Amino acid sequence: MMHAPLPRLETRRYGEGLARHRHAFHQVVLPRAGEMQIEIGGREGLLGRQHAAFIPAGAVHSFEARGAQDFLILDLPRDPAQTRGAGALDRLAQTLFFPLTPALDQLIAYAQGFRDLRLPDPAAWVALLIATAAPGTPQAPSGALARAQAHIEAHLGTPLTVARIARAAGISERGLHRLFRAGLGTTPHAYLARRRAARALDLLDRSTLSIAEIAHLAGYADQSALTRALKRQLGVTPGAYRRDRARR
Description:
Layout: E1 8-12, E2 17-21, E3 26-40, E4 43-47, E5 51-55, E6 61-76, H1 86-95, E7 97-99, H2 102-112, H3 122-133, H4 144-154, H5 162-169, H6 173-184, H7 188-206, H8 211-217, H9 223-234, H10 238-247
Helix pairs in contact: 1-6, 2-3, 2-7, 4-5, 7-8, 7-9, 7-10
Protein name: AraC family transcriptional regulator
Organism: Allgaiera indica
Keywords: DNA-binding, Transcription, Transcription regulation
């Protein structure tokens, strides 16, 4: 068995197929072009421009690729202590297949904008990708955590506090912290920061709004606050991100 690697990101083109095998690290398979029929632990799915997959460490899997294809592959250590958002990894391990949302597309495109995928802060990118891929709770879609997440999504452009989110979810602030730790492997504040960053990247990519307007819509106090947040989380400024996207 291989030793679990540190987080590693690479592009890959698969051959016709692969016999059933397993590896000692988690793997996220993000399609960029083409399709792949894959079986993970006895569950089958079709990966393409609509769906991606999470292969848990130790899970037996096999695949059959179709025609020309291109995938972004993220290898993650098995030890949750080495990966931010371990709770979200547990959620992905239960789901296995998840939709490729516009927010995930933007994170993938951001990574591919760097030569050899050498991101300024890969750990932050991995954490944001995992949180974006597994934001919900299938076990309790109408529960307090789902209510908290829905309130955050609906009010990203407003001054949100943990107290306000807890009230919307119908639980105490302490209960909210426990819920986010158990369900998503993060804190309400960190989750909110990631969702705001994802909203800002979405607007930078899809709109012609000024950076100041985008900062306001994503819930930042001003353009400087947005710039600091993106630099801290992804190592890029809003202006640089938009210029990189325009060149692609």
